[in-house]
Amino acid sequence: MARQSLPVYLTPEQHRALRQLSARTGRSMSDLVRDLLQTYLFGDGLPTDLSDLAGAVDLGHPTDISRDRDNLLSDAVSVVR
To answer: For residue 52, how many other CB atoms are within 10 A of its CB?
Structure first.
């Protein structure tokens, strides 16, 4: 796929959040920006990092997010759909 360059100026907060997401996911900042734009502009699926959904659903009992992360995210996604 051919790509075009586009200089983008971010606020310090946006850059910091993008850098942290990049470190957390192991993906490049450019790749994350392309993915976020694709999702925002064309509604193509869910964002690849669903960790922000953790805690969005009240299960009625305490959970260990580090242990139950995959199950919690799966449950949250099934509620959204």
So the answer is: 10
